[in-house]
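Quiz preparation item.
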């Protein structure tokens, strides 16, 4: 098994997301995220600079849309309705959510582990790198959270390391 990085604490993630989106954010323990064929979730693949898998985060469509809309300062109701109709993140919304998970990489870095960066953001179910799939099936650490962004809604997030 390759090296892993430390996963963020709930409070650290909450504070980072609150600062990014400029809205009140609540993060609390939640049930495991269940993937659905008819509704994609989004897997952020984090890797060490040398290329090995470090960690991953998977956000359901609701949270990905809420975080993307909030960071883009888009009107919540109209934007979330468009995402629901499309059944996936598209265009600017995907870029906005990419920015959220990219900035979250800083929470995965520590003075005692190699540097970690976001290397991929992929819809799941879908094609996932073998080493990330192995990490998902045998995690060393797993944090399942319910995340609420005031005015934008509540969704699910799992960090796996």
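Solution:
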């Amino acid at each position: 098994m390759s090296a892993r990085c430390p996963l963020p604490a709930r409070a650290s993630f909450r504070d980072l997301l609150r600062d990014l989106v400029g809205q009140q954010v609540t993060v609390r323990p939640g049930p495991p995220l269940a993937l659905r064929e008819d509704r994609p979730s989004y897997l952020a693949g984090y890797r060490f600079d040398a290329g090995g898998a470090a960690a991953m985060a998977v956000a359901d469509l609701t949270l990905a849309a809420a975080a993307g809309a909030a960071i883009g300062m888009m009107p919540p109701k109209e934007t979330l309705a468009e995402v629901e109709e499309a059944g996936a993140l598209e265009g600017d919304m995907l870029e906005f959510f990419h920015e959220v998970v990219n900035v979250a990489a800083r929470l995965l870095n520590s003075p005692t582990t190699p540097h970690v960066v976001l290397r991929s953001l992929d819809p799941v179910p879908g094609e996932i790198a073998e080493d990330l799939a192995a990490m998902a099936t045998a995690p060393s650490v797993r944090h399942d959270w319910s995340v609420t962004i005031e005015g934008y809604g509540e969704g699910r997030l799992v960090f796996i390391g």
